[in-house]
Amino acid sequence: xxxxxxxxxxxxxxxxxxxxxxxxxxxxxxxxxxxxxxxxxxxxxxxxxxxxxxxxxxxxxxxxxxxxxxxxxxxxxxxxxxxxxxxxxxxxxxxxxxxxxxxxxxxxxxxxxxxxxxxxxxxxxxxxxxxxxxxxxxxxxxxxxxxxxxxxxxxxxxxxxxxxxxxxxxxxxxxxxxxxxxxxxxxxxxxxxxxxxxxxxxxxxxxxxxxxxxxxxxxxxxxxxxxxxxxxxxxxxxxxxxxxxxxxxxxxxxxxxxxxxxxxxxxxxxxxxxxxxxxx
Length: 280
Ligand SMILES: [Zn+2]
Ligand SMILES: [Zn+2]
Ligand SMILES: [Zn+2]
Hints:
alpha/beta; single chain; 280 residues; eight-stranded mixed β-sheet
C-alpha cells in the first residue's frame, strides 16, 4: 500500500443482478420475464464499490455501458475481475470513455486466466502498434490470497470454485462479494468471519453444476452468518422478485439492479435510488 492511507468502503451499488442471459430473457413468456416490477429487470451481474473519493467496478459484463449510464458514473478508478466468462468480461471495450475523461489507462485487476481471456477477446487493446480509439488498459495481476489495492481500498482475493473453474470472490473491509460460486473451501470460509454484508450468488431453486442453487446458497449464507446477505446472479427460474424474496429468512434478501447500500457510522443501510423509486 506504499504507506498511503487506506480508503474505507462506504457505498455499494448493484449494477446488475441477473444470470448470464439477463432477465427478462429474449423470447421468454414466463411470469418473471413478463413481470412489470422493475426489480425483475436484471442486467448482467456487477457491482460498484466506492469509498468517499474512489470507485471500483467488479466485472464488465455485456451491460457495462448501460450500467454506467444508468447510474450516472463519470469516474472509475479500476476494474476487478472475478473470472473470464463472457457475462463478466464482454463490456470491457467501454472503458474508453473513462480513458478520455480521466486521461489515463484503466487498471484491470485480473488473474492469469482472466488476463489471457482479455488478451484474446480484446487483442487490439494489447497490440504493440495500436490504432487510435482502442481501450487504454494495464493489467495488474490478482493472485490467490494476495491482498492488493484498487481505488485506494484494500482488497482480499478469495479463491472459490465455479464448477471446475477456480475463480475469485473479494473481501473489502467487512463486505464480501462472491458470485458464480458452486463451492467455497474451508480455507476461504475461514476468511469470511465477521461480515456486515455478504453478496452471494443464488441461481435458481434447481441444482446446477457450476452455480449455487437457492437451497445451497441459503445453507452457505447461514454458515457464513453475515449480518446482511444479498443474493445475486439470479435466473428467471427463481420467480418474480416479490414472491421469491418473501420466502427468504430474516437477514437474507434478493438484490436488484440499482439497490444501493451505504455505510454510515459503521452501519450498513439500504438507500433508495432513483431506480428503486420506480418500485410500486
Ligand atoms: Zn456469471
Ligand atoms: Zn423467463
Ligand atoms: Zn461464470
